[in-house]
Amino acid sequence: MKGHTTVTQYMAEVRGMLSVGRREKARILIEVEEHLRETVQQEEMRGCTRAEAERAAIARFGTPEFIARQFAAAPSRHADLVPRRLALNWRMLILAVVGCLAVGGWWAFSGDGGIPGSAPRGGNLATSHVPAAATTAVGGTLRDAGLLIDVGNGPVQVSNRADAAVVRMPRGAVLYLNNFGGTCPSPCSPQFHLARSVNVAGHALTLGFIADAGSGTLFSPRPDGSLEASTSAQDTDAGTLMVYASGADGQSHRVAVDGRGHLLVDTSPLPGDVAIDMPTGEELDLSGMSRLGLFPSLQRTPPTEFLFTMCSESPCQLSYRVRSLVAPFPGAVRCLPASRGLELDNGAVRLQFKALPGYGIPDCMAQKNAAAGSIIAGYFVHYLVSATSMSGDPLSVVVTADGTLYVGQVATSESCPPCRGR
Amino acid sequence: MKGDILKGHLDTLLLAVVASGPLHGYAIIAALRAQSAGAFDLPEGTVYPALHRLERSGLLASRWAPGSGRRRRVYELTVEGNRALQSEKEVWSEFACRVSAVLGVLP
Fold first, then answer.
1. What do you get for the CA distance between the two ends of chain B, in Å?
2. Whether A358 and B27 lie within 8 Å, measured CB to CB
């Protein structure tokens, strides 16, 4: 192997050696690079320098020649052999990891609030009002942050949630992410996550954009600096864009997309006591729950850490990705077998932090009396957090926008399972 | 463990790992290593072509999943993949039993 000292150099060589179709090549390059970056991150967590970590990641992956040979032996993917997955399964997306962000929780792709009209730049989008769905869901002090999306040949569907806006884009949709400082290298990846610091009406905020474009969709720069979502002939939709906002202190801010395709941002933060079920976007009724503790604020820029509630399965659990795990309440720490995580209990409630596949706590340190706010695991880990009583009865665990931890029973409703807004 | 020994079984092992739920490539490799107590420590670059091959064969499906800034391709078992995995398990059990009998060791 040549002396590849950096992942960037290595990827350049792999790119030059792969002899597969354009779309297949784009996908392979993304998968390989993301794998290497993840390995580098893990190696750095173990104490390696960046240079050592990159060398280790490359050595473990194999030479570019080897990789190119392997993929050449695995013919290109044929779309007709694989079920199309144009309808996103949000629960899978969330559990798959890593979920996304979390600014307090989010998303249901309800598809309500379809925006008819014509585009302001020659397309067919252009109602000047804010749709009822937006005003109802958002409220507060909305400010126009600028044009987000334009369409050329079809309606845009928007779901404005309490914590985020979800936009389903038709083929040919054009995104104006560059209005918000976002850039996309050429060729753009089929899926990307941007987080940018912006100033909205004098308020310093972070806007986050996640595009899950579905299989095979590419986002390409246009001469005016915008991005065009292009799809294959088989695709009916270009994909879905999710937008969220948070303040300098990490608090969530509500956002919405109006009938002109403009992004609206609430300059006031979401109330700290609001808890949202991420898969559905519903606000949770905490009346049957007890306050147990407090998680510290998260590092969200660049988007690295998140914490949100998931009530898709009863009882509710938390998805928590964090660099250093801090005890949200005082208690005893016990280690789970095989470095799979740890438990914290205060004699009444047991909280289990279970590491997701690919993560672990190599040298978990059991403690009898961990203080609230003390670090109980110093590794970058994505946890699934669940709670039980000391007798083993499952409890729901929920976190609010300000990081307050609640346990107990979440009120449910058959008409809007599993959680009901208050 | 030698990679050659694994060569004919990699596809089945990958199906078995993915059977636990949707996973991206890095997590699949980590799970394979963890579940074999470190014995199956393959060159990581061999796994992705195998995943692509299994998807092409209709045994796995995949999609992009947003994930904290990473662009991850998540793989999951299809109905056909689950059927193939169950079949492979039966074949392996029978094979392991017969080989053990010949070698005079416990399966």
1. 18
2. yes
pLDDT of residue A326: 93
Q: Does B57 touch chain A (CB under 8 A)?
A: yes
Side-chain half-sphere exposure of B67, counting CA atoms within 13 A: 25
Chain-centre distance of CA A232, in angstroms?
A: 25
B21 touches chain A (CB under 8 A): yes
Tens digit of each residue's pLDDT (9 = 90 or more) over A188-233? 655 566 777 888 888 888 888 776 655 455 667 777 777 776 655 5
Q: Which two tokens stand for residue A62?
A: 């194999």
Does B82 contact chain A (CB < 8 Å)?
no
Least CB-CB distance to B23: which of A211, A213, A357?
A: A357
Distance of alpha carbon A121 from alpha carbon A143, whole angstroms: 22
- The pLDDT tens digits for A381-390 are 888 899 999 9
CA gap A257, A113 in Å, rounded: 10
- ipTM value: 0.88
Check CB contact under 8 Å for B56 and A191: no
Tokens 């350049």, residue located: A12
Instruction: Provide the whole-model pTM.
Output: 0.47
Contact between chains at A92 and B65 (C-beta distance less than 8 A)? yes
